Structure formats: structure tokens, C-alpha cells
Amino acid sequence: SIPPGAFRPPPDVRSALVRLTFRPPAFALKDRALFQRMVRSMFTQRRKTVANALGPFAEELGVTPASALAASSIDPRRRAETLEVIEIARLADTFAAAKT
Question: Are 89 and 35 in contact (CB under 8 A)?
Fold first, then answer.
């Protein structure tokens, strides 16, 4: 907490200093650019099921969304906003492996 007297002129509000410490990610990605493209593809159509939202993206890579989702142990009927970050990372790594 920082009192108003710490500033010139003193404001009519109280202030606080917050320190954020970022920790390393819980996962490592095989292809960060592919991850970003996939996430953008999924969330631009977030009300669709993941299988439908990934259709155009997966087609670019020559992979079916159903096979990538099955390999990642993700139910294709789920929606993008219900996925955990680790599940999205696992799916991106599945696409990265299929791409090579």
C-alpha cells in the first residue's frame, strides 16, 4: 500500500504496488507459430465444436481434425473455451508431429 503523500500532488485515492512473477510454462511446444495459428483458428469460431472449428486449419496440414483430436485424447464435441491450456498445447504438438 502506498499512501497519497508519496505522490506530488497527493491524489485523492490510495495506491498499491503489485509485483508479478512469471513462472516458466508448464509445457514446451514443438512449434510455437503453429500453436498460435491453431489457437487463432479455434477461437475465431469458438462457439463451434473443436472438430468443426479446426476444419480449415487441419485441412491446410493434410490432417483430419478427428484424427488429431483422437490422438490428443480430446472429445471432438467440446468447444474451444472448455479446453485447458495443456490440452491445447498437446493438440498443437499432435498437429506439429503430423506436419513433419
Answer: yes
